[in-house]
Write a structure and sequence with these properties.
Layout (H helix, E strand, L loop, with lengths): L2 H15 L2 H34 L7 H30 L3 H10 L3 H6 L5 H45 L3 H16 L1
Helix pairs in contact: 2-3, 3-4, 6-7
Length: 182
């Protein structure tokens, strides 16, 4: 048997099978699968926020999922508004962008746990950050310094000692970090 002729026949059959109509259906199925997975993961995330915030009351799974479904659309739309506000502030300068993003980061908690709607959630988020700005900034500084020490410093040292490129040094330092963390 000539395998190349058989392989060509299979490719030709496959090309005949994938008509534009079937490709369109496959694309729609992939898009719908992606959309459903985004919705389900968002609802589960909101349900977990609600369950964690009301742990003393021990809400049922059904109650948590109901809160997740009810809040999905408002939280998603408010997320778009917060994104636009945060993204727009980055054009002013980096520092105002960081602060606007920080001050608006708790809107989800305000909507899900506080039961606030739309701009009431933004106001609540700003109040939370106003009361805890120092703590949040301290945590950010610790995370940035920790990132520098545990990730960037090994890359720099490997570049310096071995004379390798930053890409190779990054791969080597990740291996080093994994070994040291176990």
């Amino acid at each position: 048997k000539d395998l190349s002729a058989e392989g060509f026949s299979n490719v030709q059959n496959f090309q005949e099978f994938l008509t534009p109509g079937r490709l369109g259906v496959i694309g729609i199925v992939i898009f719908l699968t992606f959309l459903i997975s985004v919705i389900v993961s968002s609802v589960v995330k909101l349900s977990i926020f609600y369950a964690a915030g009301n742990a003393k009351d021990k809400p049922s799974v059904g109650e948590c999922l109901k809160v997740g479904f009810v809040n999905f659309i408002p939280v998603t739309l408010m997320g778009v508004v917060v994104f636009l506000l945060s993204f727009g502030s980055w054009f002013l300068l980096i520092v105002p962008g960081v602060f606007v993003s920080l001050y608006l980061q708790y809107f989800i908690y305000e909507m899900v746990l506080g039961g606030k709607k739309w701009f009431g959630a933004i106001k609540g988020s700003v109040q939370i950050m106003s009361q805890h700005l120092g703590e949040v900034l301290l945590r950010m500084i610790v995370l940035v310094v920790g990132f520098g020490v545990f990730y960037q410093l090994p890359i720099y040292l490997l570049e310096l000692l071995a004379g390798t490129s930053s890409k190779e040094a990054a791969a080597q330092s990740m291996g080093l970090i994994i070994i040291l963390s176990t």
